[in-house]
């Protein structure tokens, strides 16, 4: 449960403090997930952004869903 809360807080903070839309959030999300948390490596996060880009919907919502799914399965993706 702690990891789910950590996912929520991280994406909430990124969404609340970043201006400029989804594409402006990509470097911030990458810094949080790769450098600070160490959840993904650079190649995994680039693949995540690529999948999020061609999936219908907002890129940041798709990225959050994909990261949550990779970390905690279906419940993390929700």
Could you give the topology of this structure?
Layout: H1 2-17, H2 22-36, H3 42-54, H4 59-77
Helix pairs in contact: 1-2, 1-4, 3-4
What does this structure look like?
This protein has 78 residues and is an all-alpha fold. The protein has one domain. The protein has 4 helices and no strands. Helix 1 (2-17) crosses helix 2 (22-36) and helix 3 packs across helix 4. It starts with a helix and ends with a helix.
Give a nutshell description of this structure.
This protein is mainly α and 78 residues long. 81% of the residues lie in helices and 0% in strands. The chain has four helices and no strands.
Mean pLDDT: 89
**Poorly predicted sequence stretches spanning 5 or more consecutive residues:** none
Percentage beta strand: under 5%
Identify the quaternary structure here.
Answer: single chain
- Major sheet characteristics: none
What does the overall shape look like?
Answer: globular
Radius of gyration: 11 Å
How many strands in all? 0
Query: Helical proportion?
Result: over 70%
Number of domains: 1
Structural class: mainly alpha
Topology as H/E string? HHHH
Compute the separation of the termini in Å: 13 Å
* Structure annotation, total helices: 4
């Amino acid at each position: 449960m702690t990891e789910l809360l950590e996912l929520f807080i991280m994406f909430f903070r990124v969404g609340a403090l970043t201006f400029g839309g989804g594409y402006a959030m990509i470097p911030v999300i990458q810094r949080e997930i790769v450098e600070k948390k160490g959840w993904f490596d650079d190649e995994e996060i680039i693949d995540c952004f690529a999948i999020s880009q061609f999936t219908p919907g907002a890129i940041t919502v798709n990225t959050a869903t994909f990261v949550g799914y990779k970390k905690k399965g279906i419940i993390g993706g929700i």
